[in-house]
Every structure is written in C-alpha cells, then in structure tokens.
Design goal:
Elements: H1 74-77, H2 79-97, H3 110-115, H4 124-132, H5 136-142, H6 144-165, H7 176-193
Helix pairs in contact: 2-4, 4-5, 5-6
Length: 203
C-alpha cells in the first residue's frame, strides 16, 4: 500500500522570509526575557488606563445608603396640637375658677390705670371667664375681638390636628397685608370702644 504523500511545505517568497525571532502564529516579537507579549490590542498613545486599587487591598465597595426614616406614629404626630390644646384648656380652667370681675385677683391694665383709656385687650379675662361658663353674650360684650380670636383658634387647631394625624405638612403663613389688616381692625376697635357711642364695646 502506498503511503499518501505528505503536504509540501509552502514555498517562501524570495527575500521576504519571517523576521528573526518573530512568532509564526502572532507575528509579535517575543520579549527579551523569553516571556510572551501581552494579549489584546496595543495601548492607544495618550490614553492612560484607569488606576486600580492598591496592591493587597480590595476593590471599591458599593455605596452605603442610610436606612429610610421610620414614619412617626399617629399619637406622636398629634402630640404638638394636643399639648397646645392642653395648655389653652388649663388657662381657661384657671380663669374660669378665679372671677376677674372681682378686684384684686388680676393686675389692672397699665394703660387704663395711667390714662383711663381701654386698650384692645381690656376685658379679655372677663371674656374668657364668660366663655368658660358658656355665656357667649357677656363674653362678646366684654371683648368682641377676643371671642372672634377664640373661634379662629378653634378652627385652626382642628385643621392642624387633622393634617398632623394624616402626616401632612401644616403651614400657617400670614402675609404682611394680613398683619396690617389685623392691626387696623384692632385700632378701630380701640378708638370706637373709648368713644361715647361705642360704650357697648367697653368692658
């Protein structure tokens, strides 16, 4: 049996032989120390590789985020409005138990003592005493703005408590025009209650 002929070696082109020391597979010249050249594309001039972690140290860790805040319970959210209402009720209980119509229980208004003029707050304690005893007519006659203020406070307190219980922000911001309006109303009230035809508004 005849053996199959072995493939003939490819003839080399005259004058174009492989470079001395070049690898037949890759065409890269081996390093002088005999090690193989690094694989992959050659580095691009002007572009440095990203620095890695120092030797012997682990790589970068993922960011650590703080735990989400635990929502406050409903009792804690309404603690502030409950505390305010407790203070107001305590003040009304004190005034309701000590009659301001009797002299000597409370200090006299300095403006009234020195000038005989009623200030916007004169009669406020008598008004609170009447409210504590359920006499709204007498309370309004003693100090009408005070009674209106009690009503506004009650409405604001209810809104505050409801929104606080629901975990919603509470914002009560008065603009300068509101403060000017309140001041004008109190000034007119003070002037009228000190005139003869406004004696019904005097305490």
């Amino acid at each position: 049996m005849d053996a199959s002929p072995s493939p003939a070696a490819a003839p080399s082109t005259p004058g174009h032989g492989p470079a001395p020391g070049a690898s037949a597979a890759t065409g890269h010249r081996p390093a002088p120390d005999g090690s193989q050249p690094p694989s992959g594309p050659p580095p691009v001039p002007g572009h440095l590789p990203a620095p890695g972690p120092p030797a012997g140290q682990p790589g970068p860790f993922p960011p650590v985020f703080p735990p989400a805040p635990v929502p406050a319970s409903r009792l804690r959210r309404i603690a502030a409005p409950a505390g305010v209402m407790a203070g107001v009720l305590g003040a009304f209980a004190l005034v309701g138990s000590v009659d301001p119509n009797e002299p000597g229980h409370y200090p006299v208004c300095p403006l009234l003592r020195l000038t005989g003029i009623y200030c916007p707050g004169c009669g406020g304690l008598r008004s609170a005493y009447a409210v504590a005893h359920g006499d709204l007519g007498t309370a309004f006659g003693s100090n009408a703005p005070a009674v209106i203020g009690y009503g506004i406070f009650a409405v604001v307190w209810v809104l505050w408590t409801v929104r606080a219980a629901a975990g919603k922000p509470v914002r009560f911001a008065l603009r300068p025009v509101h403060w000017w309006a309140i001041g004008a109303v109190l000034l007119i009230f003070t002037v009228v209650r000190n005139l003869p035809f406004g004696s019904a508004l005097a305490p």
